[in-house]
Amino acid sequence: MYQPSEMSGKQKAAILLISLGPDVASQVFKHLKEDEIEKLTLEIANQRKVTQESKDKVLVEFHQMALAKEYISSGGIDYAREIIEKALGQEKAMMIINRLTSSLQIRPFDFARKTDPAQLLNFIQNEHPQTIALIMAYLQPDQAGTILSALPPDRQVDVAKRIAMMDRTSPDVIKDVERILERKLSSLVTQDFTAAGGVDAIVEVLNRVDRTTERTIIENLEIQNPELAEEIKKRMFVFEDIVLLDDRSLQLVLREIDSKDLGLALKASSSEVAEKVYKNMSKRASEMLREEIQYMGPVRIRDVEEAQQKVVNVIRRLEESGEIIVSRGKGDEIIV
After folding, report:
1. DSSP-based three-state secondary structure for 269
2. Where are the alpha helices (DSSP H) in the chain?
3. Half-sphere exposure at residue 271, Cβ-oriented, CA atoms within 13 angstroms
4. pLDDT surpassing 90 at residue 280
5. How many CB atoms lie under 10 A from the CB of residue 204?
6. Distance between CA atoms of 152 and 114, rounded to whole angstroms?
7. Residue 263 CA to chain centroid, in angstroms?
């Protein structure tokens, strides 16, 4: 049997999932892409016999890497190296840090993510919208949402569109913007270059702004770029977010959903989502739905996703008509 130092990352991942057991491994799979799941499943199947020693070593290495990543996130690379050196020695610390930083790109604008968004706004609000979009794409969604809400409405739309349509940015451009912003903030910076922006990025931001800001941006994008606006709206509220609805709103939604679609939608949902739905149905209706799901048999993932999207579309329609309220960002207030 290979030692961890001789294994590929895929082999280590397979042994880690085997060690964690089927329940935990299945939860991990939910966060992976289909091709990643296929590769790992094949690798797990090829692991005919895994010694306890190999399992222990892989688990120890995973724990060390997880701790190192946490240290980097909270205090930067130098902080992580210092902590790990004290615990494991200089040689081991260097090995972990080097491996981690080579496989996980440390994102640009690390210094900005540790800065108050109000302070950042003062420095970037008069910059070109593309510059603002670039910086916001590398911020935490909460930070970016605060900044986007504070921009003038016309700039909100422009910046949101630029973030959504952003793909990869030249390292030289990132360096220049980092250097200027770093000098303004008088902070330390850890550089590296990764892809940022895209539809997922702007969805993360819009989910944290107030409803007025979101509506302004979406309505203007529907005029300027309808396809982009529709793609963003599809991802604004996902099926698992049903747990965020209040009981009254969910009951209104359930009245609009065909029982077959609801059963399909719940087939691959989390227990938390399922219980939320059952709680807002009559006892007889929930029992019938449970039985329907139980006897449904294997279903295609695509059919489940289509059913879940139907539920989400109903939620969007009821929200737009004002019949239900979906909690979004810190700016939403309900007046009673």
Report:
1. coil
2. 9-20, 22-29, 34-46, 52-88, 90-103, 117-124, 129-137, 141-150, 153-164, 171-185, 199-206, 211-224, 226-236, 247-255, 259-267, 271-279, 283-294, 301-320
3. 1
4. yes
5. 17
6. 24
7. 26
Mean pLDDT, rounded, for 42-57: 77
Do 119 and 186 contact (CB within 8 A), yes or no? no
Residue appearing with tokens 């850890």: 190
Average pLDDT over residues 157-163: 90
CA pair distance 324, 240, nearest whole angstrom? 17
Out of 229-238, 276-285, 287-296, 299-308, give the one with best mean pLDDT: 276-285
pTM above 0.85, yes or no: no
| Identity of the amino acid at 71 | Y
Place of tokens 């020693």: 53
Give pLDDT tens digits for 221-272. Answer: 888 888 888 888 777 777 788 888 889 999 999 999 988 899 988 888 888 9
Q: Considering only CA atoms, which of 184, 41, 195, 42 is closest in space to residue 111? A: 184
Q: How confident is the model at residue 333, as a pLDDT?
A: 42
* DSSP assignment string, 285-332: HHHHHHHHHHTS----HHHHHHHHHHHHHHHHHHHHTTSS----TTT-
Pairwise CA distance, residues 157 & 222, whole Å? 11
Residues belonging to the chain? 336
Q: Which amino acid is at 277?
A: V
CA–CA separation, 99 vs 79, rounded Å? 16
**Listed residue (280, 309, 277, 282) closest to 293, CA to CA:** 277
Query: Cα–Cα distance between 7 and 25 in angstroms, integer?
Result: 20
Q: Give the CA-trace dihedral at 328, 218, 206, 103, to 10 degrees.
A: 150
CA distance 153 to 159: 10
Contact 312, 193 (CB under 8 A): no
Tell me which amino acid residue 38 is: E
User: Which residue pairs from 90-99 have beta carbons closer than 8 angstroms and sit at least 24 positions apart in sequence?
Assistant: 96/64, 96/65, 96/68, 97/68, 99/65
